[in-house]
Amino acid sequence: MRHLAIVVSLLLLTAPAITAQESTKHTVYPLAGGATFEVELPPLTLTGSTLATNVTYDPARQVYRYEYTINSAATNRASIRAVQIDISGRVARPQTDPALNENVTRVGADQPATTIPVGITVPTTASFWSGGVGAGGRVFFSTNRDGAGVLPGASLGGFVIESKLPPGVRNAEIRPSTEVWRTILRTHPEGELDPPADSRDYSLKITTVAPSDPDLSQLFNGGGQSPAEVNPFLRYVAPTDTRTKLPAGTSSTWVVVAFGTTTDPASFTATFNGVDVRSRFTPVPGALQAVQFELQPGSNKLQLSIEGVTSSGRTARDTDTLTFLVQ
Amino acid sequence: MRSSLILALCLAALSAVGQEDVRPVAREQQLIEEQESDGSYRTRLRWNANGVSQYRVATPSASAPSASRGRLKPTPNYEIVDDAKVMRYRNRSDYPDYNAGWDGNGIEVPENGSVPRSDSAVGIETGWINGGGCFPANPADPASPCLTEPDGFGGTRIVWKQREIWTFRMSYIDPTNPNAVETLVGFPNEFGGFISDDSLTWVRETSAGRRCFTFYSYYCNTYGIDLDYITGSVRGFQPSCAHKRGPGYKAQIFYQYSRYKITDTIPSGASEWEPATVPATATRLAKPGKVIFTRNWEMDMGENAVSFGVGGPLHPKIEAGTGYPTAAPTVAPATGKVTLSAYDCGPVPGISASISTDFLPGTSGHAHTNTPSLSDVATTPGSAGPTDANGQWSGNITTGRVASKLRLTAIGNIEGKLFLKTADVSVGFAGLVDPGVDSSGVIRYTGQTTDHPSNHFGSGELHVFVRKMATYYNLLAADSVKGTIGINDMSLERGGLFDIAGGWSPSHVRHRFGTDADIDRFVQRSDGTFVFADQAVIEDAVETKLDGVFLPESGDRMHVQVPEYMVADILLRGTR
To answer: What is the value of ipTM here, to two decimals?
Structure first.
């Protein structure tokens, strides 16, 4: 099987700052009645953790391969026990595809029918980790064994999603283990906590690249060229306009480009803020590619250009300039 | 075993029956002949429903006319009507339907009693009415002996009553007008238009020589039966806004008898009927004979002239911090309408009432009978009114956090008459169910208490959720900790505050509308023994496979919640 590597991107993901670094106090209402008491639970901080993504495309199988590595920050106060990545789609599809590699045993099939069909692989070296698709249409990699999570300062790679659908910018969540809380709470009488011990307060909500289900007929064409049939040589899932305003502090952005079926990869050029970034792309006619760019404050310009053949047989060039304005 | 033969007959054909005094009755009727198990026949007359007058017929003899044509004991007395009374019928279904074996559910109106204009009907009911007897020697004295006359053979023979007629009347004379004209108010024909007295006639000889009430003569003649009595009768009319309120209404039954057949020539100077009919005057109706029953009554305003209601059901509020940061960080209290309406053949403005509110204990899943602060259930107005020009008033009721029932009682008066109206309002979330423990063997119900015996009401989503959680747990956990998961408190029957201690104070802050459940720390294995549940497995099943929420609690207890994207749907359903 010929496997064509397209791009490797190390993704340093931004995460919302978790301010709850201190222990939290919870009032316990004993089930047996009697006086309430307080317990103190440490934060399950995961700030700084990342999910690195490596996306490749196998034109022979027409399968995208998304490989993930969980990087647990050394400053974490809990181990990482799960990662969930949104793969919801637009239309209903069969949820199993034997052409997609998978090494997990699925438990249940609760996801919506519009979930993108995927194959899931977890590293064989990672004990007690499993994968699947949850009820909300999210791929998960998780462990259900205390002590098997990704400890602070450690990394665990080899998590793979295979899909026939192209990359897109998707929401993801990195979840902490509550083992430390449960260990503390186990020593107290049965009771209810107020406020509840909710690990969602410490989950990292991030974006990553994963299978997406864009309407390929509606992609943004980058504008600029005429005749109009030249414009679609390069089209984009992201961004969706030639000028994109981003909030202050944004450090990176994703570009997901679709190469026209008549394009010539050898003619492709790419510069980012004047620097040749051609090597970060591997154009494949008819395929999509996701690349993440580090941004600097102010204006950032990405220029992509490629030749293709029009319906009349004439060769033409589509050149798009995409501006990212970090405010 | 009874066979039934239904002969559909139309009384329109009666016009051709004969010369007897057959009063035209344009009603379709059926004679039903039912064979009893002993072979005898029982005959019933079925009157179709559009007629307001009905006669209840027992089992007239189907045998050949007997040799004795008279009654066993010649009695010249006026024929009284048994158990005559004025009856009011609140609803149409209260009106008798003798054909269906239904004697009605009327309310007797006493002398000078009142009949609300909202009633479906008011009428005259009777029990038995007998026909026959001899003609008295002194027609003015019914107690006198039977009249006899020469039989042409040197002897005498008894003179029999040949005809009798009972006239039923409902009339009205406006007591406020000294010149008021007496008018009929009952009874309409079957089309509801023409108003006339209702009358019942018995004849000694039909055209076929049968003794019979004339409404039945076709059957007496056709089947050779005599009908000397009926066991009951009723006729009525529907009060309406056309009927003036107040006294002046009168029910009467008149009685007359005659020694002459309808075909006889009345001798000169003789009176056809005894007592003779007193002719009508300019202001009074004719009096067809002796009054054998009379009852005065008055028309009152409708029973529903004042209506009082509370819109609902209404959902409780949920305070902040209940665990649904996206879908429902809080649930605002519901606001419903309390309405007072006064209408009696037109709006009645200016009506007011005081409102008292009572908690109905033992409702909505709270078996403890201590009373919460009423405002914890709902804040209600203390008074209603006055009604506006349209006879309407409305106020607001705003819910609290407790699901339960309240009874609002409005007391006031309308035109000097006291009214007391109650309306119940149910505060609670809709759509919560308790399907019970199924046979899957992966869950068991726990946590029922005397205060809250039914603690497993929840949304359908929650019930599915906990079953899947338990199923996945048993697929993924180590064999040594597999078993049934203890499903503890979910929500109460109508949700709202789940005061675990029964004191109406919050504790189960997240058990309000069927989205959450507590999970016991112990799993019961198949051998009946208990072991601690593997919480990491439950956490993983809940959070990653089911996208729900897992909250560890003190003492190894757990709390789970359906995915937050389900909460909005559940809440929308629950607050409808």
So the answer is: 0.86
